[in-house]
Design brief:
By secondary structure, this protein is mainly alpha-helical. Helix content is 67%, strand content 4%. The longest helix is centred in the N-terminal third of the chain and has 33 residues.
Length: 620
């Protein structure tokens, strides 16, 4: 038993520190240290003449993060890995210059601008950090994060006794270096985001793959940071004892993580809640001048803050792995809720202490009231909300295929975000066959599953390559096999039949469904000319016949579930694999109207995703 447990821990250790994860741990530690240095080095420069910057900056950051969440719903391509890193480094540089200028002239507006810019830079940094974690498995991600926080407290031990100037230099170095080290780990996840499509369109046909902006998780984030911000106002910064206690805590947490195969996010949140509640309960004693509790309060704030951040990063990583298109809006909303909560907590604490309007008794009563509200909220949330259940509720985005109707056809993957762009192409290459017609009338049929392709173009190229024969020229195929070409055509034939083009009527085919989907839809999609040129291939029904059967199934469902005429039109397009953008264009409707129609169709048919609807139509 002990040998098995030791072998299991050794295996997890190799997974944790292998595959470049050490570099990721260092990058995380530098990023976390830079955030700590802001509180210990940056704010002390401005607090004497601009105390309002401490809550104005997180409030402005919350507004900017909410704007980012809205923008990335429609234009996720604006957020690229390289561009985000470059813009963030420029912001940090400008912020540092503004900070020194505000300290030199004791200028409060400059201090507010500098600290607000710092919040925006941290939002962009956290986007890169979150995307860097999405490529890790659950246990490895938890271990890497815990190690990152442990190393951050090691660095904190060294920098705690350093002078303010050394801390500022460390901040200037830690922030960009950590960000640059995170960039290689985040690139793949950014590529998956861009390959997934627009979240605003994907959420219409796959609503359960995205967290709504009203999800209670964001309320929990705001409430937690409001309580934490209030308690930080009284806790102070602490000295060497605080990082030592935090380091011991995270070392013990790492040992526990290595001994478990799964990690409950809810359990981590409950622990962070208890620590924060303990910090709130210490506020009255701190107000009465009990300096001996300052270290304890500071350690509680440090650990609870880091532990809750660990919870958020695990949520981002796990939800992002299931739905890359939904990761960016969710991450921005987490930052928005965090900024709003900290602004409310700090403003309450500064009102209670800095304004001198409340005596010790009233401060104690205010702290008790905030602790009661915080505890009541979490008690109520524990009965109706779960972070682990929230992760499980996010359904992975599944690709569906669209097929041109007449007279040739091309099968393409739409909404292939579930496995990323490369996986979507792999499903297209090794799943169902395809055929298409170019603008000049040349025909091309493909059967990737069978390994042979008949093509009317002189050169046909695909993602993975392969060797094949041709009558007039050489062709390359996505599948391994042989190809026969009949005549010449341009290389852009496939581009003429993009799923969003108006002359491309599509048929929904479940991506990666294999032989079952092939049998249900006729086995192989080729044109009549293709079937004539392939004597060894069995005769297949024309695409028009398949579309007719599909329309008949939709009509039957419309009668059975009493769909309106417009809902029936939406159903037909959804069954053919069309996304919200195409439906909006084809039926001349607004985005909100399409969203409403799709929601009504899903509700009446009792389906929850695009793939479920296609399966229902297939089996009707």
């Amino acid at each position: 038993m002990k040998d098995g447990l030791g072998a299991s821990c050794a295996l997890r250790m190799r997974e944790l520190f292998g595959g470049g994860n050490i570099a990721l741990i260092v990058a995380l530690a530098l990023s976390f240290t830079s955030t700590w240095l802001i509180n210990t080095a940056v704010y002390p420069l401005t607090s004497p003449f601009a105390p309002q910057a401490q809550y104005v900056a997180p409030l402005s950051g919350a507004v900017v993060a909410f704007a980012f969440a809205f923008v990335c719903q429609y234009r996720p391509e604006l957020f690229t890995s390289r561009g985000t890193v470059v813009v963030t480094i420029v912001m940090v540089t400008v912020m540092t210059l503004l900070l020194y200028a505000s300290a030199f002239w004791a200028n409060a507006p400059l201090a507010v601008a500098a600290t607000s810019l710092r919040w925006v830079a941290c939002i962009l940094r956290d986007i890169v950090l979150g995307f860097a974690l999405m490529g890790l498995s659950g246990p490895t991600c938890a271990g890497v994060l815990i190690c990152g926080y442990a190393l951050r407290y090691v660095l904190g031990l060294v920098l705690t006794v350093a002078p303010l100037e050394v801390k500022m230099v460390a901040f200037v170095l830690c922030f960009p270096v950590g960000l640059i080290m995170l960039w290689p780990f985040a690139r793949v996840s950014f590529e998956r985001l861009h390959a997934a499509g627009t979240p605003a369109d994907l959420s219409v046909t796959n609503p359960l793959s995205f967290l709504p902006l009203s999800n209670r998780m964001f309320v929990a984030v705001m409430m937690f940071h409001a309580a934490l911000g209030f308690s930080v106002t009284f806790g102070g910064l602490g000295t060497l004892l605080s990082p030592v206690i935090a380091l011991v805590f995270f070392a013990a947490l790492l040992v526990c993580a290595l001994g478990r195969k799964t990690h409950s996010i809810d359990a981590l949140y409950e622990l962070s809640f208890l620590l924060t509640l303990a910090g709130l309960l210490l506020v009255p004693a701190l107000c009465m001048g009990d300096a001996s509790l300052t270290e304890v309060s500071s350690a509680l704030c440090e650990i609870s803050s880091s532990l809750f951040a660990l919870v958020m990063w695990l949520l981002v990583a796990r939800i992002g792995a299931r739905s890359p298109a939904g990761a960016l809006p969710m991450l921005c909303m987490v930052r928005s809720a965090r900024g709003l909560g900290i602004a409310l907590g700090l403003a309450s604490g500064m009102f209670a202490t800095g304004m001198g309007l409340l005596d010790e008794l009233r401060i104690a009563l205010l702290a008790a009231g905030i602790a009661f509200v915080f505890a009541a909220f979490n008690f109520r949330m524990a009965h109706s909300f779960s972070f682990d259940a929230t992760v499980r509720s996010v359904r992975p985005l599944s690709g569906v295929r669209v097929l041109a109707e007449a007279p040739g056809a091309v099968a393409r993957t739409d909404e292939s975000a579930g496995d990323g762009g490369a996986a979507g192409e792999a499903r297209e290459a090794h799943g169902m066959g395809a055929g298409h017609r170019s603008a000049m009338g040349k025909t091309c049929g493909a059967n990737a599953a069978g390994g042979n392709i008949s093509c009317g173009s002189s050169t046909s190229k695909s993602a993975t390559g392969g060797s094949m024969g041709c009558r007039n020229s050489a062709c390359r195929s996505a599948a391994d096999g042989n190809t026969g070409c009949e005549s010449t055509a341009d290389r852009d034939t496939m581009a003429a039949h993009k799923p969003g083009s108006r002359n491309h009527v599509a048929l929904g085919i479940p991506a990666g469904r294999g032989a079952a989907a092939a049998s249900a839809m006729g086995g192989r999609f080729t044109t009549g000319a293709d079937r004539a040129s392939n004597s060894g291939t069995a005769q297949q029904p024309p695409i028009t016949d398949i579309v007719s059967r599909l329309d008949a199934s939709c009509a039957q469902l419309a009668r059975e579930y009493r769909l309106t005429s417009r809902e029936t039109d939406v159903l037909r397009l959804l069954a053919r694999g069309r996304n919200a953008a195409y439906i909006q264009q084809e039926l001349a409707l607004t985005h909100s109207t399409v969203k409403s129609y799709v929601a009504d169709v899903y509700r009446k048919l009792n389906v929850h995703s695009h793939q479920e609807l296609i399966d229902l139509v297939e089996h009707e």
